[in-house]
């Protein structure tokens, strides 16, 4: 019997439409704890399915009347799950390529930014937690931290009548392959990076205090070293702050990637100074980071908070330098998988041959909470 499958793009569209489906995750619980599809349910049936146990999924009941999409890590065990459910008469299909393929799934949300004439679209790579942004004003747009195929940004901008004129990065990323250079090439936009000697391709350098116009609005550059030496934040009309991996909604950036212990300590000191500069901005500033540590729901709700809320959530922001440095260094999480290769590719400005999701698999780990 051939088991029907669904592509991750088709599943993404169904979830985006709010279709009545049940997404059934059959991976071991430890794998699911790392990352999952929003709204999915779990059945701890992995081992039973692998050994052909006829009772596997015998008790499973879909959460609504619609079809079931079975999911595993790579799309093989989920075929066994779908087969088992179909034998019970249920309408079940298997997700092609499993969670690896899902890594590229995304959704979008509009961000309200009172006091700015710009419109902001938050583009969320739900399969990995990367957040990128399109800022639009008067038919022009800038894209910040592009982490998905250029076609996604082109389509979202086109729908709103915006032409992408500028493509910006907050820093050289370590957890995902940057699509900024490809997007700039596809659209003819100018590629802006914080001034750095790290990359081996041409770009327009940005420095502290520089201002970039997008339609009638302005992005001001704040150099905020610490997560990396070149990291910057972009301050839109003094109202919304794109913080990259310097400041998250409940955590701060990690200072240790591609660094020795001594360099990490120095970077943690720089991060402290950078964060002190950010917390002195108006408390109503809308904070828009480059990552979230949770799979992003298909709910159209932006992942953002005011600077006031962020300060309340992160006690580290109130610590003096020495305490901040020792706490940050003591709480460094495991490094993201493949980060040396990802950094090397981002410094070269190239994408790997074949499936980028292969290299990018796994959760992002850019934060210290
Ligand atoms: Fe980063």
Structure summary:
The chain has 369 residues and is α/β, with parallel strands linked by helices. It is built from twelve helices and 20 strands.
Report helical residue fraction. Answer: 25-40%
Category by helix and strand content: alpha/beta
- Strand order across the largest sheet: 6-7-8-9-10-11-12
The pLDDT mean sits at 95
Give the helices and strands, then pairings:
Blueprint lengths: L4 E2 L1 H10 L4 E4 L3 H6 L6 E2 L3 H5 L17 E4 L5 H11 L4 E4 L2 H5 L4 E5 L7 E7 L4 E8 L2 E5 L5 H10 L3 E6 L11 H8 L2 E5 L9 E3 L4 E4 L2 E7 L8 E5 L3 E5 L7 E2 L7 H19 L6 E4 L15 E2 H7 L7 H10 L8 H10 L7 H5 L6 E2 L1
Parallel strand pairs: 1-5, 2-3, 2-4, 4-5, 9-10, 10-11, 11-12, 16-18
Antiparallel strand pairs: 6-7, 7-8, 8-9, 13-14, 14-15, 15-16, 17-20, 18-19
Helix pairs in contact: 6-7, 8-10
Bound molecules: fe (ii) ion.
The site of fe (ii) ion has 6 residues, from loops.
Write a structural description.
By secondary structure, the protein is α/β, with parallel strands linked by helices. The protein has helices at residues 8-17, 29-34, 46-50, 77-87, 98-102, 150-159, 180-187, 261-279, 307-313, 321-330, 339-348, 356-360; strands spanning 5-6, 22-25, 41-42, 68-71, 92-95, 107-111, 119-125, 130-137, 140-144, 163-168, 190-194, 204-206, 211-214, 217-223, 232-236, 240-244, 252-253, 286-289, 305-306, 367-368. The strands form four sheets. Strands 6-7-8-9-10-11-12 form a seven-stranded mixed beta sheet, covered by helices on one side. A six-stranded mixed beta sheet has the order 13-14-15-16-18-19. Helix 6 crosses helix 7 (180-187). The chain is globular and about 65 Å long. It starts with a strand and ends with a strand. The structure holds fe (ii) ion. Fe (ii) ion binds at residues 171, 173-174, 227, 245, 366.
